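WARN  no MSA supplied for this record, continuing single-sequence
INFO  ligand: LGQLAAA5
INFO  echoing inputs
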Amino acid sequence: MTVAAKICGLSEPDTLRAAVAGGARYVGFVFYPPSPRAVAPALAGELARLVPTGVRSVGLFVDPDDAFLEHVLGQVPLDMIQLHGSENPRRIAEIKARHRMPVMKAIKIGGPDDLALAAACAEVADRLLFDAKPPNRSDALPGGNGVAFDWTLLAGRRWDKPWMLSGGLTPDNVAEAVRVTGAVEVDVSSGVEDRPGHKDAGLIRAFLSNLSGL
Ligand SMILES: O=C(O)c1ccccc1N[C@@H]1O[C@H](COP(=O)(O)O)[C@@H](O)[C@H]1O
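INFO  complex generated
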């Protein structure tokens, strides 16, 4: 089995190149201004143009309105929209139809009850992404907090759409996370940073290398 990886929150050419050279299948750009990983659309456009065919560029949004989506999509050649806010199935369908882009919906997991939303979102989204529910802290982001959830909640579960595992993954724990959940796609952001918002090429290489052969 080959596990595909997404490296999210890229904002510099060197770490983008490290992700691509290491075999990442997806690269992510954050369009959520409060995040330390937020990138201006003009810079994201330049970075996305460095991404080779076969690697997909994903734009991360949190409850975006249509004007903001149009503003970003007009400058950045994205392959997929990641919705990481509280978008409901109706809004997901609306975004897909209006912007004609594949959509990956983040489902935030704190306990077994949170999985119910996944089935409803799978009816309209192209992919699901499972992340931890944000911690109860005033500075917590809607995602990208480096927090893992109980991976056993996903063990043996099946979904109607492809899905990615995220939340607190690191080079050290990603192999175990894949073993427990059966994930064939994983997404990482803070686990490959040397400080909040700053990607580290060595950690990106280690993360991708620890996935090879799984
Ligand atoms: O990375 C961010 O800054 C971010 C901001 C708002 C919503 C989601 C965000 N990141 C996504 O969160 C998960 C988990 O990240 P981490 O590896 O635990 O840091 C991942 O899917 C990121 O794409």
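Residues 4-211 form a domain with the TIM Barrel fold (CATH 3.20.20.70).
INFO  checksum written, moving to next record
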